[in-house]
Amino acid sequence: MKPSIERDLKGRQEALVTRLSELGSLVVAFSGGVDSSFLLAVAAQVLGDRVLAVTAVSVIHPEREKQEAVRFTSERGIEHILLPSREMELPEFVSNNPDRCYHCKRSILDQVSGIARERGIPHVAHAANADDHLDYRPGGRAAQEAGALAPLIEVGLKKAAIRTLSKEMGLSCWDKPSMACLASRIPYGESITVEKVKMVEEAENRLLDAGFSQVRVRCHSRVARIEVNASDMEKLMLPDLRARIVEDLRGLGFLHVALDMEGYTTGSLNRAIEKQTAEDKLPRRR
């Protein structure tokens, strides 16, 4: 690493420490991903037992992620609350419009803020990073409206920097693949149901158990569109493994199983929004 880059990273890390120390006490909305794990770890170093982790738990959040979040906090002695979230009760969420994430995140952060008030903790933080503006992220607006702080954005930390600093801190999750809630596997406009979400989770579990690290199973009605890293496609097409995956996913309720030849792409379902936005800007015929 170039000295100038290293100095920049250390400067941002020191700025984060300073910012967190100013808060006195803090509730961290903790998903167990790279960003929130890094934020929580630094907050615990700075604030000690004055930091509380809260993790939303519902059918849209993978069980694997919950278990990893619990393990992370227990290893560090951080107080951790598992919060049953209510997004599946919201018509605005299950109808699966493009503002789905806004309604979900606002609901969760309102619940987290309620816990903070009960505990007398004045601040709630979430782990959005300085790269998040590059994709469609309506949850960011919800966080602002809920009054949640975004310390990683405040100090200008991007994903790559967070991974580097996490590795230096000895966090085993530093290279963990990015993860989003299971509802993100369902195209906008198709209703979010417990059945669909469970099918997706179990399908992804089968692929993860087969050794694939970055996996998405997009649920297009009864069609499973598998995304893996391009470098893993050859492995997935091995005859025995391919046949087993097809059989497994059909057993879960999918009628057809397809491989996306482009490979894993973050936010691929947001293309529908981008296309519609572009079309809306076209001049209309009179």
Explain the layout of strands and helices.
Elements: H1 3-23, E1 26-29, H2 34-47, E2 51-57, H3 63-76, E3 79-84, H4 91-94, H5 100-119, E4 124-125, H6 139-146, H7 151-154, H8 159-168, H9 194-209, E5 215-220, E6 223-228, H10 233-236, H11 239-251, E7 256-259, H12 271-280
Parallel strand pairs: 1-2, 1-4, 2-3, 6-7
Antiparallel strand pairs: 5-6
Helix pairs in contact: 1-2, 5-6
Describe the structure.
There is one protein chain. This protein has 286 residues and is of the alpha/beta class. It has two domains: 3-175, 3-Layer(aba) Sandwich (Rossmann fold), CATH 3.40.50; 182-271, Alpha-Beta Plaits, CATH 3.30.70. 48% of the residues lie in helices and 12% in strands. The chain has twelve helices and seven strands. Strands 3-2-1-4 form a four-stranded parallel beta sheet, with helices on both faces. Strands 5-6-7 form a three-stranded mixed beta sheet, with helices on one face. Helix 1 packs across helix 2 (34-47) and helix 5 (100-119) runs parallel beside helix 6. The radius of gyration is 20 Å and the shape is globular. Mean pLDDT is 93; it is low at 277-286.
- Give the strand line-up of the largest sheet: 3-2-1-4
H/I helix tally = 12
Number of domains: 2
Shape: globular
**Which quaternary structure do these chains form?**
single chain
Give the SSE order as H and E letters.
HEHEHEHHEHHHHEEHHEH
Fourth-tier CATH superfamily name of the largest domain? HUPs
Helices and strands: which structural class?
alpha/beta
- Helix share bin: 40-55%
Number of DSSP strand runs: 7
| Radius of gyration over all CA atoms, rounded | 20 Å
Mean pLDDT: 93
